[in-house]
Specification:
about 325 residues; alpha/beta; Rossmann fold; 10 strands; globular
Length: about 325
């Protein structure tokens, strides 16, 4: 039986924002007239590509570590990540003086591997995403570490929700928020923090066609697990929808739409050309969905696209933009 909203304990989004606020960036909310004219709305980008460690993941990682006991922090933590959560947890662990081990799939971005090591994490490359999960659980059990789930955790969701609070504080006329979706921690947090207070807000998720776990979960009415994923957007490639995250999405999100990799590259180019910002493929998914016309918006709408991350190296940009 999957988790429903009635099974989830109250998540304190404002408390999480207060706890992490002194250590993370309140990232800018920037307009783009050109993207807005293309989509047919007032457009803003929430620049989580400029967040600590280069993605929104720093919010949830720090909030989770701040919730741990001193004893648990002294023993250390372990996680699995393709990259952005790895960097975020490594940074948060250094901030809280917590030993950190990160298991990453063997095909993980070397740029993200190096960054995780630079923040102080012990990085282990192991197998596929599914195999990396199993290895992380094994290390948890063998070494007595605390496993930090990259997205399916109340404290991770609460930290991610601070993004939504910032959006509404700075742009109270916002009517639509579009959020990239991997495992679902970010959209669960934003929807959970915003929707109960601003019921008229419409929230949409965006996934790659090659990693459509949440989209398929909504179709089936329960969280699903994918056998494999295939997308350039490694930050949106968890092979499953989180149980808690699915419950939030089912309750609060209008729809989760799909974009292909070519659309995502086009979104990266538009953000670069129109906003003078660099975003990774994951960070361009919301813009891709809007410019492709997949999100129903009109001239009366103020639309915020979450630019969820900017961790992409120059060689990858050159290859994708060629």
């Amino acid at each position: 039986m999957f988790v429903t909203m009635t099974d989830i304990p109250e998540i304190h989004f404002q408390a999480a924002r207060a706890a992490i606020g002194g250590s993370i960036h309140n990232t800018p909310l920037l307009t783009s007239r050109r993207i807005g004219e293309t989509v047919g709305c007032t457009f803003l980008g929430k620049c989580e590509n400029l967040q600590k460690t280069g993605s929104f993941k720093a919010r949830g990682a720090l909030n989770k570590l701040l919730s741990l006991s001193d004893r648990a922090k002294a023993r250390g933590v372990v996680t699995i990540s393709a990259g952005n959560h790895a960097q975020a947890l490594a940074w948060a662990s250094a901030t809280t003086d917590t030993p950190c081990t990160v298991v990453m799939p063997e095909g993980a971005s070397q740029t993200k591997v190096r960054a995780s090591k630079a923040y102080g994490a012990n990085v282990i490359l192991h197998g596929t995403v599914h195999e990396a999960f199993e290895r992380a659980f094994q290390l948890r059990d063998e070494l007595g570490l605390t496993f930090i789930h990259p997205f399916d955790d109340p404290d991770i969701i609460a930290g991610a929700g601070s993004t939504g609070i910032e959006i509404m504080d700075e742009s109270p006329k916002t009517t639509v928020i579009v959020v990239p979706v991997g495992g679902g921690g970010q959209i669960a947090g934003i929807a959970g923090a915003v929707k109960p207070l601003f019921g008229n807000i419409r929230i949409y998720g965006v996934e790659p066609t090659g990693a459509a776990a949440m989209h398929l979960s909504l179709k089936k009415g329960q969280p699903v697990r994918l056998d494999s994923v295939n997308t350039i957007a490694d930050g949106l490639a968890p092979p499953m929808a989180g149980d808690l995250n699915f419950a939030f999405v089912k309750e609060y999100v209008e729809d989760v739409v799909l974009v292909d990799d070519a659309d995502i590259v086009d979104g990266m180019k538009r953000v670069s050309e129109c906003m003078k910002l660099i975003v990774e493929p994951s960070g361009a998914a919301a813009v891709a969905a809007l410019t492709k016309g997949l999100i129903p918006v009109g001239p009366e709408d103020t639309v915020v696209a979450v630019l969820s991350g900017g961790n992409v190296d120059s060689k990858t940009i050159a290859r994708l933009f060629a």
